[in-house]
C-alpha cells in the first residue's frame, strides 16, 4: 500500500532506471500487476514496465487486453501521460494475430470517446484508428458493410460492456468518425474524411502527433493568412441595419 504520489514517481522511472539494472526483473511482476489493477494514471504508468516484462521476460498476462480496454475512458484524451499510453497501445495492437472482435472493440470505444475529445487528441487518434484498419482488414466492416441491414434503429455496440468479446463492436459502424467530419476544427474534419476513401497500405506515422498540444494548434492557426471573410450577405445601408429595418423608418441621421 503505497501513497499515490510515490506510486507515480516509481512507475515513471521503473522501465528505464530500475528494470535494466535488476538481475531478476521478473521480481517486479507482482508489483506491476497490482499497480496495473489500481486504475487511472497509475495503470497507465504501469504499462511501460509490463511491456518490458511481456516482451523480454515472457510474462503471461491472460486478462491484459481486457484491462487495457477498461483503461479507455473519457479522461484518456486529457491525461498528462496520453502520449506514453498511445505509444504503448500502438505496440500492443500491432500484432496481426489479434482477433478481429478485439481490435474492433478498441476502434469502436476510441471512436465513441472521440466525440468529446479536444482537437489535438483527435488529430492523433484518427490516424491511430486508420492504422488499426490497415493492420486488421477484417475490421473494415465498421466502415463499409455491403450486405448489412439498410437501417439500424440503434447502435448494437454496448459501451458499458467490460468484456471486449461481448461488446458487439463488429456488428456496429463508425458513425462517430462520420460525425467528426463536421467538426468545427477544419483539420479534424479533413482527417476524419480520410475514411471516405480507400486507405493506403502505408501506415501513418503518429509519433509526431502524440505530443501535440492545444498551444501548438493555436500557434499554427494564428500564423495562417486567411482571406477576408464576408460577415453580411446583404450590405448595411445605414446605422441601424438593412433597408427595411424598423429603425430606419423612424430615425435619421442629420
Automatic annotation (TrEMBL):
<dbReference type="Pfam" id="PF03914">
    <property type="entry name" value="CBF"/>
</dbReference>
<feature type="transmembrane region" description="Helical">
    <location>
        <begin position="85"/>
        <end position="107"/>
    </location>
</feature>
<keyword id="KW-0812">Transmembrane</keyword>
<dbReference type="GO" id="GO:0030692">
    <property type="term" value="C:Noc4p-Nop14p complex"/>
</dbReference>
<dbReference type="InterPro" id="IPR027193">
    <property type="entry name" value="Noc4"/>
</dbReference>
<keyword id="KW-1133">Transmembrane helix</keyword>
<protein>
    <submittedName>
        <fullName>NOC4L protein</fullName>
    </submittedName>
</protein>
<comment type="similarity">
    <text>Belongs to the CBF/MAK21 family.</text>
</comment>
<feature type="transmembrane region" description="Helical">
    <location>
        <begin position="31"/>
        <end position="54"/>
    </location>
</feature>
<keyword id="KW-0472">Membrane</keyword>
<dbReference type="InterPro" id="IPR005612">
    <property type="entry name" value="CCAAT-binding_factor"/>
</dbReference>
<feature type="domain" description="CCAAT-binding factor">
    <location>
        <begin position="43"/>
        <end position="192"/>
    </location>
</feature>
<dbReference type="GO" id="GO:0032040">
    <property type="term" value="C:small-subunit processome"/>
</dbReference>
<dbReference type="GO" id="GO:0042254">
    <property type="term" value="P:ribosome biogenesis"/>
</dbReference>
Amino acid at each position: 500500500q503505497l501513497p499515490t504520489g510515490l506510486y507515480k514517481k516509481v512507475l515513471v522511472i521503473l522501465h528505464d532506471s530500475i528494470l535494466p539494472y535488476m538481475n531478476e526483473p521478473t521480481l517486479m511482476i507482482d508489483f506491476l500487476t497490482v499497480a496495473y489493477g489500481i486504475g487511472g494514471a497509475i495503470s497507465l504508468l504501469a504499462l511501460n514496465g509490463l511491456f518490458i516484462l511481456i516482451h523480454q521476460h515472457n510474462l503471461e498476462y491472460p486478462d491484459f487486453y481486457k484491462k487495457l480496454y477498461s483503461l479507455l475512458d473519457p479522461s484518456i484524451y486529457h491525461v498528462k501521460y496520453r502520449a506514453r499510453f498511445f505509444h504503448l497501445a500502438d505496440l500492443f495492437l500491432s500484432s496481426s494475430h489479434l482477433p478481429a472482435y478485439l481490435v474492433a472493440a478498441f476502434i469502436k470505444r476510441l471512436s465513441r470517446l472521440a466525440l468529446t475529445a479536444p482537437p489535438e487528441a483527435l488529430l492523433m487518434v484518427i490516424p491511430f484508428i486508420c492504422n488499426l484498419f490497415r493492420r486488421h482488414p477484417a475490421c473494415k466492416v465498421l466502415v463499409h458493410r455491403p450486405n448489412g441491414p439498410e437501417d439500424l434503429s440503434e447502435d448494437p455496440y454496448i459501451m458499458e460492456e467490460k468484456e471486449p468479446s461481448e461488446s458487439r463492436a463488429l456488428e456496429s459502424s463508425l458513425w462517430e468518425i462520420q460525425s467528426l467530419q463536421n467538426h468545427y476544427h477544419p483539420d479534424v474534419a479533413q482527417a476524419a474524411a480520410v475514411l471516405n476513401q480507400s486507405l493506403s497500405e502505408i501506415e501513418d506515422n503518429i509519433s509526431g502527433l502524440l505530443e501535440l498540444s492545444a498551444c501548438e494548434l493555436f500557434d499554427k492557426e494564428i500564423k495562417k493568412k486567411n482571406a477576408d471573410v464576408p460577415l453580411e450577405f446583404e450590405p448595411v445601408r445605414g446605422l441601424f441595419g438593412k433597408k427595411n429595418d424598423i429603425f430606419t423608418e423612424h430615425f435619421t441621421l442629420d
